[in-house]
Amino acid sequence: MQFQLSIIILCFLVFSSMLSGCVSEVNFEEPQPTDAKDETHFKRRLIGDYINTDDGSRMTVGKDFIIRQWDFRHNTANFQIDSLGEFKTTDGMLSDSGNQGALKWNVKIDGDTARIEGSLIDTIFRIGKDQVLRNFKGYSFLNAEEENGFWTVTLLSSEGQGKVTLKKLRGDSINLEKLKTLVVSDEIDDVGSTVFRIKPSRRELKRILHSDLFKDESAFQKIR
Fold it and tell me: From first to last of its 224 residues, what are the pLDDT tens digits of the chain?
């Protein structure tokens, strides 16, 4: 049981690390579309709370931000809480002391059982200097500047009847070969991995959108 709980917590930590460390292989030289204006807020019809029917996570679209939340619940034997190594309990909270306390969960003791509850919250997007929102062809373009100075682009697409989808331009071989026929790209070695940098015109961007190179990552249904 202790092994099972440790594995669950470890997976939670790894997942958190993946959320903050993933970088697309396809980067843009500047926010997209290049000649569209920067928006200060999301369209009113998009604002609200959504649920992902695949994993039960919730997504909130606010006036100038998007966050996603995964809830965590697990029951374990009470005595095993004190033997989790770098995890410690204080005032009914289980925290990860080895990760600057980044993850914290509530612990409720019920006899010999410890009930652990918590959440992982990922800020997908927040409008600012390095995160630029632009609208084009019915899509919300979520432009995020990377450390290399280039930009990644995620599309927020409204599918009707309260459904929205996050779409990303992936750097797999099939996508890249098709992309090269639509727009000029430069291959850049970035810390051991290849980054494909592109600067599409409005016409080329339309071709990319029509070619379905932005793939569905997560679909959400509006609940309020």
Answer: 444 444 455 455 445 444 444 434 789 999 999 989 999 999 999 999 999 988 889 999 999 999 999 887 777 665 555 555 555 555 665 655 554 444 566 776 677 777 777 777 889 999 999 999 999 999 999 999 998 889 999 999 999 999 999 999 877 777 888 888 898 878 765 555 667 889 999 999 999 999 988 988 899 999 98
> Residues 53, 221: contact at Cβ < 8 Å?
yes
How far is 114 from 107, CA to CA, in rounded Å?
Answer: 6
Pair 37, 98: CB distance under 8 Å: no
d(CA 68, CA 22): 16
Residues 135 and 94: their CA atoms lie apart, in Å, by 42
pTM (2 d.p.):
0.75
> CA-CA distance, 157 to 154, in Å (whole number)?
10
> Residue 88 to residues 60, 95, 105, 137, 207: CA-CA distances in angstroms?
31, 6, 10, 50, 53
Beta strand 131-136 with 163-169 is unpaired
Q: From CA 139, how far away is CA 209, in angstroms rounded?
A: 10
